[in-house]
Amino acid sequence: MHAETSTGAHQPLEGFADLVHSKGALLIVDAVTSLGGHELKVDEWGIDAIYSGTQKCLSCPPGLAPVSFGDRALAIMDARKTKVQSWYLDVSMLRKYYTGGGGGRVYHHTAPINMTYALHEALNIVLEEGLEARIARHEKMHLRLRAGLEAMGISYIPKRSLHSLNCISIPTGADDAGTRKRLLEEYGIEIGSGLGVMAGKAWRIGLMGHGSTVRNVDLVLTALREVLK
Amino acid sequence: MHAETSTGAHQPLEGFADLVHSKGALLIVDAVTSLGGHELKVDEWGIDAIYSGTQKCLSCPPGLAPVSFGDRALAIMDARKTKVQSWYLDVSMLRKYYTGGGGGRVYHHTAPINMTYALHEALNIVLEEGLEARIARHEKMHLRLRAGLEAMGISYIPKRSLHSLNCISIPTGADDAGTRKRLLEEYGIEIGSGLGVMAGKAWRIGLMGHGSTVRNVDLVLTALREVLK
């Protein structure tokens, strides 16, 4: 988990691949909430397979999952003896569709072309800002929000927080659902509730892609301060 | 196969369910190229599971597969003892997501909301025309194209043709790829090639959704006549 969406934890991945590969295993990474908002060096970090979503830090509509596979993963795929149970998610067929396989591209499915155009444009927007500048913006906005929250006595739950998702402890005495409802109805701000064992204990504030701005950070801080009063 | 997209064959389904059910089996139907263009009585015909696509006769962007399950299929699903291998395509989880399961809706995935809005609008357009009127239009346009093609000595391959997809024999002496290339480059008309054993022997002319019009039928007839000269 490079980016743990339900807890807001950020897991640095340097060094993991060496450990994993020394045991003969492959490293698969969940980067749904980090791609486009956090540094992510797929090859340098030795990642064998990685997947993300379009709807988080890329600010593209939801509906596609960008994926990438390295040479180790492809070698395992090529050596596979058993049939893949799913036609839809058979990556060996998707590979022939997208990259061809000696004999050229092999039809697999009708492409969701509008989503593909949307992703293309979203990536253009990322490049217009510059990927490094975008990652730096996510960090800066996270630090701005963090400083404001900590000044209000609110603490972060994960030891190392994602810049795109801020998972904080609900202040003592605050009404979980009531606060979120007022933020939504009075300010048009939706923050996430805690999940599983963190239900009723955590709030999750997303600062992803085009939403990660000074305006939004300052608005959520002001709104939260008002509602908590 | 209610609608066989690669051969243009239309399979009437009345009576099939009785036979299938008498053997203790379920009837699953492919209606990718018929939904919105052909009569399709899911409950009346005793269909247990059916799937389609948004990009054919519904004239919606590609990216979603409308599906429906009847009581028999749901009972089998509920009695299942083995784990579904795919999370993504686990219909029991999708069911809890879309319809709730006693305890309300259970989160499964981030919905492709733009596609959902697109489908909603496409269905509105279907209802504005009227489903029966739309189906009648598909039949009328098919008959118009058929009359024109047969007047040119061109014959249909399937005994019973889809109205949405016209699979015809390539006339003797005609250049398969060259004809399709000229239709595309000179007239902006793309017709499909034959697939598998029908490669080089068949052409497939789609008349689906908003494309099934007098203008398009007459244009393709004129263009084909000119190119074949």
In short:
The structure is a homodimer of 229-residue chains. Chain A has helices at residues 16-22, 71-79, 91-99, 113-129, 131-151, 176-187, 214-228; strands at 3-4, 9-10, 28-30, 49-51, 67-69, 165-169, 192-193, 202-206. In chain A, the strands form three sheets. Chain A has a three-stranded mixed sheet.
Can you walk through the features of this model?
The structure is a homodimer of 229-residue chains. With 229 residues, chain A is an alpha+beta fold. Chain A has 2 domains: 3-129, Aspartate Aminotransferase, domain 2 (3-Layer(aba) Sandwich); 132-228, Aspartate Aminotransferase, domain 1 (Alpha-Beta Complex), CATH 3.90.1150. In chain A, 39% of the residues lie in helices and 11% in strands. Chain A has 7 helices and 8 strands; from the N terminus they run ββαβββααααβαββα. Chain A has helices at residues 16-22, 71-79, 91-99, 113-129, 131-151, 176-187, 214-228, and strands at 3-4, 9-10, 28-30, 49-51, 67-69, 165-169, 192-193, 202-206. In chain A, the strands form 3 sheets. Chain A has a 3-stranded mixed sheet with strand order 3-4-5. A 3-stranded antiparallel sheet of chain A has the order 6-8-7, with helices on one face. The mean pLDDT of chain A is 95. Chain A binds chain B through residues 53, 55, 61-63, 85-86, 88-89, 110-115, 118, and chain B through 53, 55, 61-63, 85-86, 88-89, 110-115, 118.
